[in-house]
Write a structure and sequence with these properties.
76% of the residues lie in helices and 0% in strands. With 145 residues, it is mainly alpha-helical. The protein is elongated and about 50 Å long. The N and C termini lie close together (7 Å).
């Protein structure tokens, strides 16, 4: 079975993205006061599902490829919600969670999260679907990376 390195790279990127989101959530929670940081980090933990999904696509694309549409939908929703949050903050003149948590880093955390989302979505959309006989053809040809 030939594994696509782009899915392993996307999984590692999603882990880094989760760490950044958890950091921003903790920082925003500290700024909000109380136990809000713990609640924000708990809410951010669902983002680990993307790292797991990309890892399993790397592990066995033919078997877990049927879950790709769920990952595509999730990535699309992430991007749409981030854009809506930024637009709402700009249009209404309010600070968003990303503005509060960014502090001296400015828009860097938001740009890094958006770049990770776009990379994951591009990896999903650019990879052609695995066919049923694809693994057998590659193993007969000697390809087992």
């Amino acid at each position: 079975m030939k594994r696509k390195a782009v899915f392993l790279a996307a999984s590692a990127t999603e882990l880094a993205r989760f760490a950044l989101v958890a950091f921003v959530a903790l920082d925003a929670g500290i700024a909000a006061g109380g136990a809000a940081g713990d609640v924000y980090r708990y809410a951010a933990s669902a983002q680990l599902l993307f790292a797991i999904g990309f890892f399993f696509l790397w592990l066995d694309r033919r078997r877990y490829g049927r879950y790709s549409p769920l990952l595509i939908a999730g990535k699309s929703v992430n991007i749409a919600l981030a854009a809506a949050a930024v637009l709402e903050g700009r249009l209404l003149g309010r600070q968003t969670v990303l503005d509060v948590a960014a502090g001296p880093l400015g828009p860097l955390p938001a740009a890094a999260v958006l770049a990770a989302d776009l990379f994951g979505l591009a990896a999903l959309l650019s990879a052609r679907p695995a066919r049923d006989g694809e693994d057998a053809d590659e193993s007969a040809a000697g390809g087992s990376a």
